[in-house]
Amino acid sequence: MKKVNFIVLGALFLASLALLWLWWYLGFSSVDGPADVIISVVWWAAIVAMGYGIYRFEQRRRKQMRTVYVSPTSLYNCELGMLDCPDITQRAALVEEMVKSLKYGFDFQDMPEEGSFDYSYIIRTDDYRDAASWTGTVVKVGRNGSHQEKQFTSRAALESALA
User: Fold this and answer.
1) Is the CA virtual torsion 107, 67, 163, 98 positive or negative?
2) Where in the sequence is the domain holding 115, given as residue range(s)?
3) Chain segment 102-131, per-residue pLDDT in tens
4) Is 125 within 8 Å of 66 (Cβ atoms)?
5) Domain count of the fold of the chain
6) pLDDT digits over 51-70, tens only?
C-alpha cells in the first residue's frame, strides 16, 4: 500500500478523534442523544474497512503486475515491457531480475501484437523474498486450448517447470 494512502486514512482517523473530543469538550453530549457517538464509531469502522480494502486491492494489483509472459525468444511484463531472452537456460534468472526490479507504478507497457509475440508460458509470482523462497505458478499454454499448471517454491523449481 502506498504511503499516501496511509497518510489519508490516518488524517481521517485523527480528524474524527478530534471532532469526537470536541463534541464531548463542548458539552454537546449532554444536549444530543448517543447517536453522535454511534455515528463516530461507525465512521471509524468505515475508515478501517476502507484501509483494509485498499490494502487488499493493492496486494491483488501487485500480484497481477508480477505476471511474466514467456515466449521462446523474449519475456513480457506489463510494467517493464519486452525483454529479449534468446538463451532458454537464462529465463528463470531474467524473470527473477524482472520481479526484483518492479516498482509497482501506474505506467504500463502495451502487450505486443499476437502475431509478433506468441508466449508459451505464463509465470505468476505469488510471493518473492529471494530465490530460495519464491512461490508461484507456471502455466504452460497450449495453442489448442489446453493448459498445464505447475506450482514452484524456488528458483530451481521454476527452472525445472520451464524446461
Assistant:
1) positive
2) 66-162
3) 898 888 899 988 788 888 999 999 998 887
4) yes
5) 2
6) 898 889 989 999 999 999 99
